[in-house]
Design a protein that fits this description.
3 helices, membrane, 55% helix, transmembrane helix, Cytochrome_b-c1_su10_fun, rod-shaped, 0% strand, QCR10 subunit of the ubiqunol-cytochrome c oxidoreductase complex, transmembrane
Length: 73
């Protein structure tokens, strides 16, 4: 008959083992929330100018090409 052997576990390892299963789910939800926020705020001039123009592949799409004479402010 097999014996049951209990091993002590360090508190840090116990916390990591408990939180490891949630890490992937929280990462997916966090990425989705960030992408949704950028999508909803992409019409805001501050977000467009400070964040979206600086993205390497998408910068040209969000760049403002309106002439200065056509801008109201």
């Amino acid at each position: 008959m097999a014996r049951v052997v209990f091993k002590t576990q360090a508190p840090v390892n116990a916390a990591l083992a408990g939180s490891r299963r949630w890490l992937t789910t929280l990462g997916i939800w966090g990425f989705s929330a960030g992408a949704g926020a950028l999508l909803l705020l992409s019409v805001t001039p501050l977000v467009r100018r400070e964040v979206l123009v600086k993205v390497p592949m998408l910068g040209n799409y969000y760049e403002d090409k309106t002439p200065e004479s056509d801008k109201p402010f």
